[in-house]
Design goal:
alpha/beta, Rossmann fold, 256 residues, 8-stranded mixed sheet
Length: 256
């Protein structure tokens, strides 16, 4: 009989102050660690945290890594008006906190993001030499080609009821600015020294697989793309596999 020993951990909830807003954050640190451990910024999408995010946090802890997650302004208890552009700035602040956090190995920092969080992960990691590797799961990318007007409205309308004070007209204006200035295909080349992992399901009905394929083409080596057969946008029925591939990727980078 094999006995599985689960690693203990500590959870610390705190407030991230950024641009006058108070963002709800939480950092999970593994127990029984005698030296600084790697730290991973885990970024959810729009509007919130699907189960794959919780799976990743749990698996990272068990691997002996710290995981910091938070809610962008204007969602899930964080103060202020929701903003896609503001979310990127919020994530930059969260990343700076993770890097400075006591007990974190500043030479082993990573970001991982799902959906819109993938766009955020590429943006905050681009040009940041402290970030050693980046992983994105079915990220928002190649917006101009991959998102028709109908798809854009569908995606935005699904999320708007769960965030604060953002109307569809404002959301569309910000979305256009994302496409012009913050699309990952414009920034992924700047993380050329950081190994890049991209995972996308071939049954994703929210973000087309072609968006990730275009992003992967723009990325520089070292890079890896995993296409999950039968995987939808939430990786339902595939979460264990996706979690394992992501954590295995981090382990390979951090331990070598």
């Amino acid at each position: 009989m094999i006995t599985m020993v689960e690693r203990s951990y500590k959870s610390e909830r705190f407030i991230i102050k950024n641009e006058g807003e108070k963002l709800i954050g939480e950092i999970f640190t593994p127990g029984n660690i005698k030296k600084p451990c790697p730290g991973v910024l885990v970024l959810h999408g729009f509007p919130g945290m699907p189960l794959i995010i919780y799976d990743l946090i749990s698996a990272l802890i068990q691997e002996g890594y710290a995981a910091l997650s938070f809610h962008y302004r204007g969602c899930w208890g964080s103060s202020g008006k929701y903003s896609y552009l503001g979310a990127i700035r919020d994530a930059r602040k969260a990343l700076s906190i993770l890097i400075r956090k006591e007990g974190i190995d500043r030479e082993r920092i990573a970001t991982v993001g799902h959906s819109f969080g993938g766009l955020v992960a590429v943006n905050v990691s681009s040009g940041n030499k402290k970030v050693k590797t980046v992983a994105v799961l079915c990220p928002v990318a190649d917006i101009e080609k991959g998102f028709s007007k109908a798809r854009t409205r569908m995606v935005l309308k699904r999320g708007l009821p769960f965030v604060s004070d953002l109307r569809i007209e404002e959301a569309l204006v910000e979305w256009d600015e994302l496409a012009n200035k913050y699309d990952p295909i414009h920034h992924v080349g700047k993380i050329s020294t950081q190994p890049f992992l991209l995972i996308h399901g071939n049954k994703d009905d929210i973000i087309p697989l072609s968006c990730s394929q275009a992003l992967f083409e723009r990325a520089k080596k070292p890079k890896r793309m995993v296409i999950v057969n039968g995987g939808d946008h939430l990786f339902s029925g595939k979460r264990k596999m996706v979690t394992k591939k992501t954590v295995d990727w981090f382990r390979n980078i951090f331990e070598n």
